[in-house]
Amino acid sequence: MTQTRTTRLERGRSALGPALELVHTGQAPTRAVLTAELGVTRATAGAVANELETLGLITVDPHPTAPVGTQGRPSHRLAVDPRGPVALAAQIHADGYRAALVGLGGHLVATAPGCGTVDADPAQVISEVVRTGAQLLKDTGRRCVGAGLAVPSAVAEPEGTALNPLHLAWQAGAPVRDTFRACLAEAGITHAAGGSPVTGFAANDLNVAALAEYRHGAGRGAGHLLVVGTGHHGVGGALVLDGRLHTGSSGLALEVGHLTVDPGGRPCHCGSRGCLDVETDPAALFSAAGRTPSDRDSLLAQAGELIRSEYATDARVRAATGRLVDRLGLGLAGLVNILNPDRIVLAGLHRALVEADGERLRGVVADRSLWGRSGSVPVLPSALEHSSLVGAAELAWQPVLDDPIGALGG
């Protein structure tokens, strides 16, 4: 490295993390945009981009091009390196688990599901999903920067314990993060920068899904993003304020599944009745449609397929979908009154509901909410196929985004 480049890199080292995040989230497709966003000189931006390329995190197009239809100065295109390291992401739900490898930019490199009964001991399913992830790493030959676990429960910080796993047989307070880390070490998954075990993180599945949608999906650009969605059982929610998750004092914020939308409705696991949790999840759809799900696939996948394939042709499916849409709209209207979001993104089965009859859903939200009547609140389907997995990977990528050289030992 030349003295000039060394000086530029030292001047721009503090910009490495912000620069990587700009490329990671698609906000800096060229070196010219990177220069402007960072507020540095072209030379410093060039040194920063080259260092990130040396670390194997991004690629820099050696042949700069000018924007189509302009006479501007050509600029080098930037992109995440498709051959770069990955984060191991794991999601546990009531019907089993899924493991994935996720690169920068939220790109899924590989994924593998596992279905079955989740044991009362969290270590059973966590060890299974970790072994599945380890096999994906072996098969692809990728380096790993860390691991993230998404679970259907609020996760207390700093303890890393599952506070309310209502849809699993786990005891409240199960040490999911420590168990995850122990399983990663047992599986021999080591960090890309050396031989030490990777660090594991754990969080609520809807919280990390919201983070993924904010950075890579339908929530991009929102200042106050509300995400509501169904898992395989139950309903969760999350709020992203100016890029940061709002989790409350102990990780229990936005437990929207226990918002009552029908006081005389179905009994809920929390002890109340008519909660979103039991009025708008996959089980509620099958019950309202008079159908019985099979054991061949996850409940969430079957519910989504039922709407996509039979909504237009079966009156009972259409009526059941309408019932869930109305209940969901009531819940969203209450949340809009309280939170005043500038965008709502719906995930899981709720994504299928808004795709099936978004006009009806938006109408209920507008009619039943003060802010909805005074100004339209966009209600959008999630853009990511596996948002909780992508979000779990974001937890593992964060140390690299904060300090690329420190995290990767450059």
Automatic annotation (TrEMBL):
* UniProt similarity note: Belongs to the ROK (NagC/XylR) family.
Put simply, this protein is called: ROK family protein
Entry's InterPro entries? ATPase_NBD (IPR043129), ROK (IPR000600), WH-like_DNA-bd_sf (IPR036388)
Q: What is the lineage of its organism?
A: Bacteria, Bacillati, Actinomycetota, Actinomycetes, Kitasatosporales
Species source reads Streptomyces reniochalinae
Q: Name one Pfam family in it.
A: ROK
Question: Signal peptide span per the entry?
Answer: none
